[in-house]
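Re: that chain you flagged

S.,

Sorry for the slow reply, it's been a week of failed gels. I finally had a moment to sit down with the sequence you sent. For the record, here it is as I used it:
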Amino acid sequence: MKILIDDVIGGWYGIGERGISEKLAAITDGEEIEIIINSPGGDCYEAIAIFNLIRSYAKTHAVSVRINGLAASAATYIALAARTVRPESKIIISENSIFMIHNPWIYIWGDYRELSKFADYMAQLASMFGSTYSAVSKQTEKKVRELMDAETYLVGEDIVSNGFANSFEKINETENAGAGLSRDSLLVNARASIEKMAETVRVNFKKETLDRAAALISMNAFKNAPGGGAKNITFQTPQGNVPSGNEGGIMNEEELREKYPALYNAVFEKGKTAGAEAALEKERERVGAHLDLGEKAGEAGMKAAAKFIREGAAVSSDKVHAEYIALLANNKNIENRNADNPGDTNLAVDDDDAKLEAAFNSGVKAGMGE
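Prediction finished late last night. Pasting the structure tokens below so you have them in one place:
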């Protein structure tokens, strides 16, 4: 089976774990998997999920990777997944292949407490990536972290000499028009692709992704860093600092729970709390939107809002939308009748329809905190 990763890594706006999972679900016993990568990277948390998925299949199937152009940022982590299980797994490159590693990027906003919290996550994430790069390439973590700090581009055989690939194929230039591109041209094209990817991720970024990923980062540092785990990460738990090395093996979830129960519980609670906070914030937004719209529609609107809140209805529902519009129109009629000089309200007039629609949209935005 061939699996093509030729876009930004990013769930619904690119290539995500769900799409890869659906393809792998059709694989038969003993079937080989070839992963072809030409990606500028993207959402590192989606990349972690894909990494875990490929790594799981590599335990029972032969997996090879071909870098058919560019593997940058989060895509490099995916490329190494199979070799964390089977070091002999092939990562094939050619003279116009590019491999770029760097420290993970983030788009975030908030006060100094928010920034400090997420800086912590990013440091852990960089350590996890660095540990995997080091274990696969056989370079020291110090050397790998220097390459990441420098945002390093490796081209062609340099990828093999640095240990990130283990198979080099010479391109037949008569069959590949891109083979004649100079190193500088390849790098210019790669940087342009990465900049475009970064903008795509920025536009689609949601801060709650980081909260949800806190436990994921910590668990992966144990489960997926070969040759003893991410040794330079220390996690703060209620019982103090616990080093993450697992003395020569890859620790699965059960082993982690047995060996470091306090750490396991801390990670579990962190993920649970993050999920609960995100759900609570979403519910606040839903209730707030209903209350804003109900208030604009008067007494009947508030009754309808209370009903919708109890039923768990979303303000974006077509049925809810239509009812609020009708209530807003009715409330406008009542206001006009009660006014000293009532104005005309004609629901058949486009201008009135536009005003009612604007009132509805204003209520939704207010409820969403915009």
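What I noticed first: The CA atoms of residues 271 and 301 lie 38 Å apart.

Talk soon,
D.
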